[in-house]
Each structure stands twice: as structure tokens, then as C-alpha cells.
Specification:
The structure is a single chain. The chain has 283 residues and is mostly beta strands. 15% of the residues lie in helices and 38% in strands. The strands form two sheets. Strands 1, 3, 4, 6, 11, 12, 13 and 15 form an eight-stranded antiparallel sheet that branches. Strands 2-5-14-7-8-9-10-16 form an eight-stranded antiparallel sheet. The two termini are 24 Å apart.
Length: 283
């Protein structure tokens, strides 16, 4: 079921320059380890072995909209591996919205870690266990970005909402055009059980499969437009956005109640003082 907020966002974005496609080579290009890419029609596979991982990035930068990809994650013993799908701007004060899929030993649940960077500062991790096995079939992972909010979605179910609280003096990522990226790499120093479980290279290569690439967003010229120009052009048609519907809020509450296993907002060992954004909204 398509969510109301996505329909609303897409309808408004049609008023400005929007890119939308399902073909990898129209939207993306390999960024490293081209020999670790396999193309099977509309299907793309990235592999990780003990020599290298691999990654790709969008050909353009975007401001506001929805980006989606369907991923079938690494099967079997994937401990130590990370498959990431994210949006990011560039530079030391960059903004970034992360999906990180943390591998695990066979039979253990796959975890998703989300994070939000604002002006170069992250440390806003949330982690949840999925309610399905993401290695058995493809599932949709989406990022919705507007001047009001960032919403992380799995199969169109919202799993996290980061809202704009600039009126309370809290920075929000709204003024930097962002690329879209994905990669697979070895992170066995932290990814599985805090790094206690290492990558078993006897199971390599580790393969993540992709299809259904979609970018419904305002495209930003890289070299000709300033940040102010991009905000004016992409944001002028987005003066306000609807909130999550009642059903979507119920979905988000269900995810948090049943599948959330870590939230930086409640980690007093890391943050003796509660981060400001945690005080003011569900996040």
C-alpha cells in the first residue's frame, strides 16, 4: 500500500525537475571495485571477498524527494559484513542519512542501523531487528527527505522519523544537495556483536543483490547552482508537508515497540545529557 505522504511528496515534486527511473545505469555508476559487480539483466550484484568490497553512487545530486532500492541481503553467515544504502552530501560539514545492514551468524536476526548526520555530526544511531528474513527475497528500502522531515521506510513502513526542530535551535539537514550511495564492505571490528564475531572468509564471496532503483527527487546541477539556488528551486514548491498519517504513526509505534533494540536517545552511558532533539520528539 502506497503511503499518503509519498503520494503527496511525489505530486509536488512533479512541479520541479524530477528524475525517476528503475534502471541502474541511468541513475548510478560504480564508484569502486568494478570487478566486484555482476549484472544479470535488471539485477545487480555486489560482492565482498578478502580482497575488496564494492560500491556505487548516483550520477547526480538531489534535494528533497524519495529514493528507493530493493535489496536482497547476504545469505547465510554474514557476520562482520555491512551493506549500506544512504544519501550524503560532501565535505567536513556534510549531511547524511544511513541505512546500514549489519550481518550476523546463521540463524541470528539481521539488524538495520540507521543514522543521521547534520553538519558533519552523527552519533544518532538507532538499531532494530527486522520482522522478516531479508536474505530470502527482495525488500524495498526508502529515504524520504523534505524540508520538514526525514523518514526511513522498509517496504513502505516507516521505521524512523527525524523532524525539523530548527524553531528550537536544533540544526536540520536541509540546505546541501545529496548523492545516493550503496556499498558492501568488511566491518568486523564493530558490525556484529560489537566486533566480537569476525568475518569468516571461508564463506566468501558475500553477495548483496539489487533491483528496482528509483529516485523521485529534485535534481541539482553540480557546478552551476549555489545551495541557495537549489533550496529556492527545489523547496519553493514544498512550503509545507503533511505529517505521517494515523496509520503510519501506528506502524512506526509498532516497529519501535517490537523491533527497536538500540536508541542513542536512551544510551546514558554515551550521552549523560540527553541530546536536545531527543527531548522534543519521537526520533
Amino acid at each position: 500500500m502506497k503511503m499518503t505522504i509519498i503520494y503527496f511528496c511525489f505530486a509536488i515534486l512533479m512541479m520541479v525537475e524530477v528524475v525517476s527511473s528503475s534502471k541502474f545505469d541511468e541513475l548510478f555508476q560504480p564508484s569502486w571495485a568494478l570487478d566486484h559487480f555482476t549484472y544479470e539483466g535488471e539485477l545487480l550484484k555486489l560482492k565482498l571477498d578478502n580482497f575488496s568490497g564494492a560500491g556505487f553512487q548516483s550520477k547526480s545530486k538531489y534535494m528533497y524527494g524519495t529514493v528507493t532500492v530493493q535489496i536482497k541481503l547476504i545469505e547465510g553467515d554474514s557476520a562482520g559484513t555491512v551493506t549500506a544504502f544512504y544519501m550524503s552530501s560532501e565535505g567536513p560539514t556534510h549531511n547524511e542519512f544511513d541505512f546500514e545492514f549489519l550481518g550476523n551468524t546463521t540463524g541470528e536476526p539481521y539488524s538495520i542501523q540507521t543514522n543521521v548526520f547534520v553538519n558533519g555530526e552523527g552519533n544518532r544511531e538507532q538499531r532494530l531487528n527486522l520482522w522478516f528474513d531479508p536474505t530470502k527475497d527482495f525488500h524495498k528500502y526508502s529515504l524520504l527527505w523534505t524540508p520538514r522531515q526525514v523518514v526511513f521506510m522498509v517496504d513502505e513502513t516507516p521505521i524512523r522519523e527525524h523532524t525539523n526542530l530548527e524553531h528550537r535551535g536544533i540544526p536540520f539537514p536541509k540546505d546541501q544537495a545529496m548523492g545516493v550511495y550503496s556499498s558492501i564492505w568488511n566491518a568486523d571490528d564493530w558490525a556484529t556483536q560489537g566486533g566480537r564475531v569476525k568475518t569468516d572468509w571461508s564463506h566468501a564471496p558475500f553477495v548483496a543483490s539489487y533491483k528496482g532503483f528509483e529516485i523521485d527527487a529534485c535534481e541539482c546541477p553540480v557546478s552551476t547552482a549555489t545551495a541557495a539556488d537549489n533550496m529556492k528551486r527545489c523547496g519553493s514548491a514544498l512550503p509545507t508537508m503533511s505529517e505521517l498519517s494515523l496509520h503510519q504513526n501506528h506502524q512506526l509505534m509498532w516497529v519501535r515497540a517490537n523491533h527497536l533494540v538500540y536508541d542513542y536517545c536512551t544510551d546514558t552511558s554515551r550521552f549523560p545529557t540527553i541530546p536536545a532533539e531527543c527531548v522534543h520528539h519521537r526520533h
